[in-house]
């Protein structure tokens, strides 16, 4: 392989072909510190042409490629296996914002751009790029596209797939497909863009994208609401859609334990209510009126919810600081869980109409099989996405509990399938859920996916071992 590495060095420069183990280390550890891999080299190209040249070399020498952006993925999809045969293709140096077209409401970017930098660039021209994730300061847009990331504003703006008009992709044979068209209507054959979005780098490497921009909202309304049950939360969502229409931007569900963990591990955040409830909803509206109509809408909604006996209590944020505190409580749940100890995570989606029944049913089944297990249930109720996580009983050792992960996954995922849901809502499949995918996808679906993989990556060098 020395000749291959020498050719890589001559293509992008010796300093950008990382061979040293210590230099490689940050690229080989997954985000949750659960798995690590080995690599022949870390390749750090500077532009799309260099990516294509490197892919052609990899194809010639049959070297597997693991594309990597910010390496913030949650399903062990962006690190290599332990064989040491693969290279990691890091796109961190592809970080330019190529063009902002205000008239077309689009921004063309390199795949390695950090999500937060894209948000800032949009804000500087008085526009909005609405994708928002807890990892937005670290994750790249290429990774967001490769996993079809969701976030907190899907209810109004859609997933990453819905926010992208065109792509630039280096194929598995090293050709460059320039699909950077900022068109909202284009019916010229198969939608190649949608093949690569959500493919987790198994079909090609996304190097650029045309993203949708939106007018920046002029006013916001934020409310934190306590409820007796998740059934009331689902009913409140229906009521909020009726009252708030297109202004309804976010509708986040938080169960009691989720909030308790945040207050335990992040006491700097102000408590909202003096008395605990079983469930909470963080609701956000955004509008474009010159006069702030969002607060009026929120007041009317809460009044209607009280009259319908749906809520226990509610606060409407009266300042930016109060609104930020509300969102800090929601965004700190995952970190609080990590501080509490190890847990078994599930990223699932369900029809909104059955979510409450699923939570009751699955929680009951888990309690029967694992007495004392603690449910940390939160997520984007507005679009049907739950993070349905299971923590060990208080007196149970984390590692002992984790030995039951396969059994717990089976209960949760079987129930998800029973209620016609998906075992992966916004995190992808990677290696973590590859075996689970085989259990829940039909033979027809799996064969269609294998056919696409074989057609676009005949040498199986693009992120092999992931998804399929």
From TrEMBL:
<dbReference type="InterPro" id="IPR016166">
    <property type="entry name" value="FAD-bd_PCMH"/>
</dbReference>
<keyword id="KW-0274">FAD</keyword>
<comment type="similarity">
    <text>Belongs to the FAD-binding oxidoreductase/transferase type 4 family.</text>
</comment>
<dbReference type="InterPro" id="IPR036318">
    <property type="entry name" value="FAD-bd_PCMH-like_sf"/>
</dbReference>
<dbReference type="InterPro" id="IPR016167">
    <property type="entry name" value="FAD-bd_PCMH_sub1"/>
</dbReference>
<dbReference type="Pfam" id="PF01565">
    <property type="entry name" value="FAD_binding_4"/>
</dbReference>
<dbReference type="InterPro" id="IPR004113">
    <property type="entry name" value="FAD-bd_oxidored_4_C"/>
</dbReference>
<dbReference type="InterPro" id="IPR016171">
    <property type="entry name" value="Vanillyl_alc_oxidase_C-sub2"/>
</dbReference>
<feature type="domain" description="FAD-binding PCMH-type">
    <location>
        <begin position="35"/>
        <end position="216"/>
    </location>
</feature>
<dbReference type="InterPro" id="IPR006094">
    <property type="entry name" value="Oxid_FAD_bind_N"/>
</dbReference>
<dbReference type="InterPro" id="IPR016164">
    <property type="entry name" value="FAD-linked_Oxase-like_C"/>
</dbReference>
<dbReference type="InterPro" id="IPR016169">
    <property type="entry name" value="FAD-bd_PCMH_sub2"/>
</dbReference>
<dbReference type="InterPro" id="IPR051264">
    <property type="entry name" value="FAD-oxidored/transferase_4"/>
</dbReference>
<keyword id="KW-0285">Flavoprotein</keyword>
<dbReference type="Pfam" id="PF02913">
    <property type="entry name" value="FAD-oxidase_C"/>
</dbReference>
<protein>
    <submittedName>
        <fullName>FAD-binding oxidoreductase</fullName>
    </submittedName>
</protein>
């Amino acid at each position: 392989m020395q000749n291959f590495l020498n050719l890589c060095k001559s293509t992008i420069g010796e300093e950008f072909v990382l061979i040293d183990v210590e230099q490689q280390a940050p690229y080989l550890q997954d985000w949750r510190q659960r798995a690590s891999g080995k690599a022949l080299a870390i390749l750090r190209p500077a532009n799309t042409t260099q990516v294509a040249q490197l892919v052609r070399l990899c194809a010639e020498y049959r070297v597997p490629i693991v594309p990597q952006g910010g390496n913030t993925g949650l399903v062990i999809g962006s690190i290599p296996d332990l064989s040491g045969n693969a290279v990691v293709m890091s796109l961190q140096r592809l970080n330019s914002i190529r063009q902002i077209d205000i008239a077309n409401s689009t921004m063309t970017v390199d795949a390695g751009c950090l999500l937060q930098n894209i948000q800032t660039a949009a804000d500087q021209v008085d526009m909005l790029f609405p994708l928002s994730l807890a990892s937005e300061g670290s994750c790249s847009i290429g990774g967001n596209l490769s996993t079809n990331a969701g976030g907190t504003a899907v209810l109004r703006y859609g997933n990453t797939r819905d926010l992208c008009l065109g792509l630039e992709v280096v194929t598995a044979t090293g050709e460059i497909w320039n699909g950077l068209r900022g068109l909202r209507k284009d019916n010229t054959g198969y939608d190649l863009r949608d093949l690569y979005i959500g493919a987790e780098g198994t079909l090609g490497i996304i190097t650029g994208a045309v993203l949708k921009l939106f007018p920046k909202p002029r006013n916001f309304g934020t409310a934190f609401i306590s409820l007796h049950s998740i059934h009331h939360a689902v009913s409140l969502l229906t009521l909020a859609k009726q009252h708030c229409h297109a202004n309804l931007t976010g509708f986040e569900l938080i169960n009691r334990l989720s909030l308790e963990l945040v207050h335990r591990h992040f006491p700097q955040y102000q408590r909202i209510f003096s008395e605990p409830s079983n469930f909470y909803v963080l609701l956000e509206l955004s509008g474009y009126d010159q006069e702030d109509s969002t607060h009026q809408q929120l007041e009317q909604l809460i009044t209607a919810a009280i009259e319908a006996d749906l809520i226990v209590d509610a606060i409407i944020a009266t300042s930016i600081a109060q609104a930020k505190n509300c969102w800090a409580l929601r965004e700190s749940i995952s970190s609080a869980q990590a501080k509490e100890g190890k847990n078994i995570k599930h990223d699932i989606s369900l029809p909104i109409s059955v979510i409450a029944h699923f939570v009751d049913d699955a929680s009951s089944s888990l309690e029967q099989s694992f007495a004392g297990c603690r449910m940390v249930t939160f997520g984007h109720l507005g679009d049907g996405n739950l993070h349905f996580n299971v923590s060990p009983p208080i007196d149970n050792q984390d590692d002992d509990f984790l030995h039951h992960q396969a059994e717990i996954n089976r209960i949760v995922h079987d129930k998800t399938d029973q209620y016609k849901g998906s075992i992966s809502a916004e995190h992808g499949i990677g290696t973590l859920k590859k075996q689970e995918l085989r259990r829940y996808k039909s033979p027809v679906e799996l064969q269609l996916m294998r056919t696409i993989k074989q057609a676009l990556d005949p040498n199986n060098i693009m992120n092999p071992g992931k998804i399929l």
